[in-house]
Predict the 3D structure of the following.
Amino acid sequence: MNKINVIGLGPGNKDYILPIALREIKNSHIVIGAKRNISSILDYVENKEIVYINSNLQEIIHLIHQRRTKKKISVIVSGDTGFYSLVRYMQKYFNNSDLNIITGISSMQYMFSRVGRTYERAKLISLHGRYIEFVQYIKEYEMTGVLTDKVWTPSAIATELLNNNISDCNMYIGENLSYDNEKIIELSLEEASKYKTENINIVIISNGSYCRGVDE
């Protein structure tokens, strides 16, 4: 029985897709992914069966169970398969031995490289579609990388930190990472609290003094 490829495409620009990922996609019969991800590999999916992911995950799982005996299937995801991707969901329905996981370059990796920082001492978290108590992390770590969403925007994150008496931090905000219209800026928390953007961003919060509260 064929293994199921789960392939990370990197931060967005097709220049960052790994050769092994493209080879496995090219050798597949069925390619499954979000429309924006499929659009970045159109040259590699000609004459293949395309299945788009939206809110139909249970249907996708059923299709894979039915078709994998005779067809080679690749499920493509953005970024790194090991960082808030579809892998955990897939593991609810398939054994690890059923999956061929091919990681990609994460948007977080890309962002840290673009601002010239390493992340071995950073805390990496996601506020994309979820909430966690992140204020303490900002205090404790030299740097914190955050996946944002349309609720927890850079402005909302900065405002929450200021409301918790944290001000001695800078925030890097990355928009449209790896694309031609990429924008990366560094702001104080005060400046970031007023920054408006319509994009989903990667944020790095750098404290320099472990973000002690202003009243400490």
